[in-house]
Amino acid sequence: MAENVRAEYSTETGEVKCRFNNKVDFCVGTGRAGLALQREYFEQLKFVQDIIGFKYIRGHGLFTDDMAIYHEYEQDGEVISEYNFTYLDLIMDSYMELGIKPFLELGFMPAKMASGEQTVFYWKGNVTPPADYEKWCNLVKATLNHLIDRYGRDEVVTWPVEVWNEPNLPGFWKDADMKEYFVLFEKSFYAVKEVDKSFRVGGPAICGVNDEEWIREFMEFCDGKRIPVDFITRHHYTTEMPERSGHYSYQQLSSPEYGKENLHTTRTIVDSFPAYAGKEIHITEFNTSYVPNNPIHDTNCNAAYIAHQLSWLGDDNESYSYWTFGDIFEEMGVPFTPFHGGFGLVANGVIPKPTFWTFAFFKKLQGKCILRSDESVIVEGDDGVIRGVVWNHGQERTGKTIEFKCDIEIQAAGCKEDCAADAEYIIVSKIVDENTCNPLKMWHEMGEPSSLTPSRKELLKEAANPFVRSENKFVEEGVLTVEQKVEEFGVVYFECEKINRAGDRGYSYNRSILA
After folding, report:
1. Which residues contact 154 (CB under 8 A, 6 or more apart)?
2. Is 166 an active-site residue?
3. Which end of the chain lies in a sparser environment, N or C, as judged by fewer CB atoms within 10 Å?
4. pLDDT attached to residue 192
5. Catalytic option among 166, 375, 380, 488
6. What is the mean pLDDT of residues 485-499?
């Protein structure tokens, strides 16, 4: 519990003593590419973009058969490749409309190009190497050249390219064959660079199993081959093994510190290679659970735990992409209910989950860091407004409430010569906890309907909004004291702004409220 914490900001030198690299809005995950053709998918992404506004979006399935890009036909005894970009154009057009760029993941394998029949997920993405690497490289080059023709070279070369997804897991890459993945990476890397050297290409997009071994071997391979890889990618999930029950999986949250230490090993390994020291590391997927049927994703507990993660993920990593923005998602099949433990920030019906607000709040934390603790981040914006997020996270229920108190040296937070000792501030707070912003609880109390009527959907949307309150505080001896009570698994956003009262002649607030 943080009691009477003084903001870490020097009034004499203006030196910021805390570090907070906020990349919360760089990228967000999505289900396979073909799902972007659905109306509900578009509406969920539009809602997310209108309030949060991510720069990039990354998902699987660019080359799977439902996208219908790769085809073959026979002519005069020769097998000829041809390409169909109809669906790709529709999807990319919708992304451009919503102001988000693709973070391109090269995968999975078109069935007619594959060397085997192994697939993953309900939608059967082929996870075997290409039977002919020349055809694979031609597909990659043709796709990128088409995108350049349609959207312009200056735009498309800003789209990062990642080679495959989780090749260290046998479910995503046949036999988790490391040497074969390195072949795929090298050939894909140079195919992309052949289109334009400005493209940034990375990998190996590994997750969990043998992560240290894979990162080290990948760096040794690139170093030995002198491949100038542009960035390193990996994934980050923080739950133990799942316990299945019906359609659902339940998992214990891991220690937040374990996740931090595990990720830091990647930074250490990459930096141990002089040619790659300091290279960007992008976490192209992260969440608590790694399965799309864990009810924790829909909870306030998830929102608070993720808030803690967002406070430090930027220490070692250039970006960290939440998996995923919405619940139009079919890895294990079409979900049966609106709340089903899906990965998304938004439930089907465009109902924001508590974790959605964690991201919306952190998006506002732009400016100089004046405090970062295990339960809070506070910044001063260029506009002089002080903004902060406080959370009460935990791996299990304890019943604890946080009484957060922070003394902010106000002259170091945008208050200059015109600031009187008794300057008045408005402190606006937005509260997300189990009592004030909990659509899951209302859905449960509705009887957990699998299909929502329009009226029930609207009720759930109302229950999914933060509670807003305000108060006035005066600066005392150069210090503004901010106090927040944060319930268990709660997340509270606040902003403090100096006000100048200018009431109308004859108006009395106290008389109007019969005070």
Report:
1. none
2. yes
3. C
4. 98
5. 166
6. 96
Torsion angles phi and psi, residue 331, rounded to 5:
-55, -40
Tell me which residue of 280, 164, 199 sits closest to 232, measured CA to CA: 280
What would the pLDDT profile of 35-71 be if each residue is shown by its tens digit? 999 999 999 999 999 999 999 999 999 999 999 999 9
Domain shared by 356 and 410, yes or no: no
* Mean predicted confidence (pLDDT) in 150-156: 98
- Tokens for 21, please give them: 């690299």
Please tell me the distance from the alpha carbon of residue 72 to that of residue 86, in angstroms, as a whole number: 16
Of the chain, the percentage scoring pLDDT greater than 70 comes to 95
417: confidence class by pLDDT, cuts 50, 70, 90 = low
Residues sharing a CB contact under 8 Å with residue 354, sequence separation 6 or more, in sequence order:
299, 300, 302, 303, 432, 437, 438, 491
Q: Which domain holds residue 180?
A: 27-363
The values of phi and psi at residue 317, to 5°, are: -120, 140
Question: Is residue 417 among the annotated active site residues?
Answer: no
What is the residue whose two structure tokens read 């250490």?
Answer: 268
DSSP E strands in 415-476: the ranges are 424-432, 467-474
CATH number for 442: 2.60.40.1500
Cβ atoms within 10 Å, residue 156: 23
Q: Tell me how many domains the chain contains.
A: 2
**Token pair listed for 59:** 């998902």
Domain finish residue from 298, 332, 363: 363
Same domain, 217 and 353: yes
pLDDT score of 8 more than 80: no
Say if residue 419 is in the same domain as residue 443.
Answer: yes
Options 285, 380, 409, 488, the catalytic residue: 285
The sign of the dihedral angle between the CA atoms of 464, 465, 466, 468 is negative
Angle (nearest 5°) at CA 351 between 346 and 352: 55
Cβ–Cβ < 8 Å for 22, 362: yes
